[in-house]
Amino acid sequence: MAGEEPETTARRALAEELGAEVVQIEHLGAFRVDLGSSGDLPQIYWATITEPTALESEEGIDKALAAAPAELDRMINTGELDDAFTLVSIAYARIRGLLA
Questions:
Q1: Are 48 and 24 in contact (CB under 8 A)?
Q2: For residue 1, is it within any domain?
Q3: SS3 state of residue 25
Q4: Does residue 32 contact residue 40 with C-beta atoms inside 8 Å?
Q5: Structural domains counted in the chain
Q6: Where are the beta strands (DSSP E) in the chain?
Q7: Fewest CB atoms within 10 Å of the CB: 46, 52, 53, 60?
Q8: C-beta of residue 72 within 8 angstroms of C-beta of residue 66
């Protein structure tokens, strides 16, 4: 929503799209989705959430999955995880020591 703080947006999105409540949230950083021409600078957050209860199929979310770091590596290597938002989030989490 216009004028909404990024953390508030992240909390709202988790509630709306997963039916999950945030237990803890940490700002990891931001990244450019292009070479800077669009001006977009999405913010990346790491959140501990309650169990998802309502996946938002209209947003293309058909499952929620908890994966260990080794499983994330496997999914990246096989191409199962290939979207920029997820890959950047994993990179930030590793740098911060959140994925052991």
A1: yes
A2: no
A3: strand
A4: yes
A5: 1
A6: 22-30, 43-49
A7: 60
A8: no
CB count, 10 Å around CB of 66? Answer: 7
pTM given for the model: 0.82
User: In this structure, is the dihedral angle defined by the CA atoms of residues 97, 41, 86 and 4, taken in order, positive or negative?
Assistant: positive
Question: 59 is in which domain, residue-wise?
Answer: 6-95
> Which is nearest to 17 in space by CA: 67, 66, 60, 46?
60
Query: pLDDT tens-digit profile of 50-91?
Result: 999 999 888 888 888 889 999 999 999 999 999 989 999 999
What CATH number is given to the structural domain containing 29? 3.90.79.10
- Is 36 inside a domain boundary? yes
How many whole angstroms separate alpha carbon 88 and alpha carbon 94? Answer: 10
Buried-state track 9-36, b at ≥16 Cβ within 10 A, e below 16:
ebbeebbebbbbebeeeeebeebeeeee
